[in-house]
Write a structure and sequence with these properties.
The chain is an alpha/beta fold. The chain is 36% helix and 25% strand. The chain folds into two domains: 146 residues, NAD(P)-binding Rossmann-like Domain (Rossmann fold), CATH 3.40.50.720; 161 residues, Dihydrodipicolinate Reductase, domain 2. The longest helix has 19 residues. It holds the Pfam family GFO_IDH_MocA_C3. GO terms for molecular function: nucleotide binding; oxidoreductase activity. It comes from Candidatus Kaiserbacteria bacterium RIFCSPLOWO2_01_FULL_53_17.
Length: 343
């Protein structure tokens, strides 16, 4: 039985806790975060006896095999390092750390201590995304020539005028680091390694932390296929996440128009016309965050890797790769930085 602790009272409570609590051969023995009524109720529901407000005390007092983290990138670096030094396996959020140097340090330490490590890159676990990957790997419509991403939505922090790390690029936030860390991972998951990027950022006074609200990119992959990306987390009235795979003998469109991981469809277009590809529906529990059903797949793989002592993918190496791409894109962005605010 793998004994795991959750650290984080936001997504840690309503995402990681129900996901890991449902995995056979895994027991959530403790959680660290704000001691709210919601936290107490969820811990009671999932049989978690110990609630901590100090992660150091949790690591010191609990007999653990692993931790699952849902904290800020800077805190994740600090907590992850402490957990790995104790020989604990680590399930981490994205981005892995606030900087590429921190991410590389975590990977090197995890290798040295021979612990299992994973990063919550959730999108490729969705059934429709898995089917798209399978069809690309089989060259169902020939080689991939161009991949485009169009992702528009209004982020919670911008909508509710919140100044948090999620809108501060120095803390691992901003549209590129916080949201498109997912995208940089899934672009290479589908199309192979990115070799060239040209990018442009957009800013808005509505991002109270000063981080960018939009990213547009032109891409070249090592296999010479090309791509372009449009991401905006400050789009009002439109929610859309769409990937278009233009292949030699047809086109695949993967997308949804609401929610985060909800109801993605896969449609193919070729000389026979358009048709929807059937994929199994994600099994969602009543009143459960939609991400939990997908996250549960990664959590189960992590638990299996820990109990068998084998590597897990995506792991910290993928997290480092994304972090290095983020640093490269920020360094060469052609957009003017916003002027400093005055009081």
């Amino acid at each position: 039985m793998l004994k795991i602790a959750i650290i984080g009272s936001g997504f840690g409570r309503y995402g990681l806790l129900p996901a890991f609590a449902s995995i056979p051969r895994c027991k959530v023995v403790a959680i660290c975060g704000k001691k709210t009524k919601a936290m107490a109720d969820d811990c009671k529901r999932f049989g978690v006896m110990n609630i901590y407000s100090d992660w150091r005390a949790l690591l010191e007092n609990e007999k653990l095999d692993a931790v699952a983290l849902a904290v800020t990138p800077r805190a994740q670096y600090e907590i992850g390092k402490a957990a790995i030094k104790k020989g604990l396996h680590v399930f981490a959020e994205k981005p892995l750390a606030a900087t590429a140097a921190q991410a590389r340090e975590l990977l090197a330490l995890a290798k040295r201590k021979k612990v299992v490590h994973s990063v919550d890159f959730i999108f490729p676990e969705i059934a429709a995304w898995k089917k798209a990957k399978e069809m690309l790997d089989k060259n169902t419509y020939g080689e991939l020539r161009h991949l485009s991403v169009d992702w528009d939505f209004l982020s919670y922090d911008i909508e509710h005028k919140r100044s948090t790390w999620k809108t501060d690029s120095k803390e691992g936030g901003g549209a590129l680091s916080f949201f498109f860390s997912h995208g940089l991972y899934y672009l290479e998951h589908f199309a192979g390694k990115i070799s060239k990027v040209k990018s442009n950022f957009t800013y808005s006074k509505e991002s109270l932390g000063g981080g960018e609200v939009g990213v547009d990119m032109l891409l070249t992959f090592e296999n010479q296929s090309t791509g372009h990306v449009h991401l905006s987390c400050n789009t009002r009235g439109l929610r859309k996440h769409e990937l278009i795979f233009r292949c030699a003998r047809g086109t695949m469109v993967l997308g949804n128009t609401h929610g985060y991981v909800d109801d993605f469809t896969l449609t193919v277009y070729d000389e026979k016309g358009a048709r929807r590809v059937k994929v199994p529906a994600e099994k969602k529990a009543k009143n459960e965050d939609a991400r939990v059903a997908v996250l549960r797949k990664l959590a189960a793989r992590f638990v299996n890797s820990c109990t068998r002592g084998v590597d897990m993918h995506p792991g910290f190496a993928e997290g480092v790769r994304v972090q290095e791409l983020i640093a490269e894109i920020r360094a060469q962005s052609t957009s003017a930085k916003p002027r400093a605010r005055t009081s």
